[in-house]
Structure formats: C-alpha cells, structure tokens
Design a protein that fits this description.
Blueprint: H1 10-14, H2 17-36, H3 38-64, H4 70-92, H5 94-122, H6 129-149, H7 164-167, H8 184-191
Helix pairs in contact: 3-4, 3-5, 4-5, 5-6
Keywords: Membrane, Transmembrane, Transmembrane helix
Region (Disordered): 152-174
GO cellular component, one term: plasma membrane
Length: 193
C-alpha cells in the first residue's frame, strides 16, 4: 500500500508544525463562536453552500453548451439547472434547506461508515484493519447522531434544552426585526414540542 508521506520529507512537515497547531486553534475558536449562536451559524453555512451551488450550477450550464451531442448537452443542462434551483432554495428558505442538508449529510455519513467498515473487515489480515473498522463505526454513529439531533423536515426530535420555553423563541423581544428573517416563525414552529 502506498504511503502518503513517502513523497514529502518529514523534515519539511516538522518545520511547519506551528502552522498546523495554529490552524487547529483557529478552527476550535471558530467552532466555539458558532456554538454561541447556532441560528446564525446555520444560516451562514446554508448561504455559503447556496453560493457554492449557484456557482457550480452556472459552471455546469456554461459547460453544457461546450460539449458535443444532445445527450451530453441535456445532461449538463439538467444538472446545472438542478444546482441553480438548489442554490436559490438555500437563499429563499435557509431553515428548510438546513434540514435537508442535515438529512443528506447524515445519510452520506451512514453510507460512508458502513462502506468503510466493510472495507476494513475485508482487509482483516492487513495491519491496521481494526482502525479502519473503528473509524467506519464512528462515522456511521455520527450519521445516526446527526439524523437524531438535527431538525427533520417533518419536525424535530425532542432534545433536552431545545424546547421553545428554554430557548426563549416565543419571547417577542428576542425576535429579530430584520425583514429578511421571515423564517423566524418557521423556526419557532419547528422548535415547539
């Protein structure tokens, strides 16, 4: 099996260890800031994914008219339109889009975890197969956890501390006055149990 570090000298990696530590600290601080305001972090991340989808959809549409053959043009055009519509949906209703993204992410984690576990079991005589199986089980459990803790399109599962009485979502003084956050009623509705 090829090793990723065969081509990179270890002295080059060791001399830049401070950058890896700094990046880890920066990501930890950003994660703690995001935990401070989950609603804002969710909306910002959905808007970011929406911008990426819009950019990808426009790129697909431009590419659609550069290929030969109607079957290829049709495929690239439909793919591009799907990406553009998904990107627009992220901006129109970020709360529903976040629920859909959570669902797709949890499904992807479960599938990747099951596949990784299967690959690890197939590598059983090789060294390190147990670590691959363990990472597959942890990945699948993270997918199930995201599914259980995330907001579902049909409503959230009851999670302690997420009731509207505890979070203050029913208090009119805490509602934002910004006209673009009309989804606040949807959030208040989804968090009631």
């Amino acid at each position: 099996m090829a090793d990723i570090f065969d081509e990179t000298p270890t002295s080059q990696l060791q001399s830049k260890w401070i950058w890896f530590v700094g990046l880890g600290v920066l990501l930890l601080v950003c994660g703690l800031i995001a935990l401070g305001n989950l609603m804002l972090a969710t909306v910002v991340s959905v808007y970011y994914v929406g911008m990426l989808m819009l950019f990808g959809g426009v790129t697909y549409l431009v590419h659609a008219f550069q290929v030969r053959g109607w079957d290829h043009v049709l495929f690239w055009t439909l793919s591009g339109l799907l990406y553009v519509f998904a990107g627009i949906a992220a901006f129109v209703n970020p709360i529903l889009t976040s629920a859909a993204l959570t669902l797709f992410l949890s499904l992807a984690l479960v599938i990747a975890g099951v596949f990784r576990t299967w690959v690890g079991r197939r590598m059983k005589p090789a060294k390190g197969w147990g670590w691959i199986v363990a990472s597959g089980v942890i990945t699948a459990l993270a997918g199930f956890g995201a599914r259980l803790a995330g907001q579902q399109p049909l409503g959230p599962r009851p999670v302690p501390g997420r009731r509207s009485h505890c979070s203050g979502l029913d208090d009119d003084r805490l509602r934002p006055r910004h006209p673009q956050l009309k989804q606040w009623k949807a959030v208040s509705f989804l968090t009631r149990t």
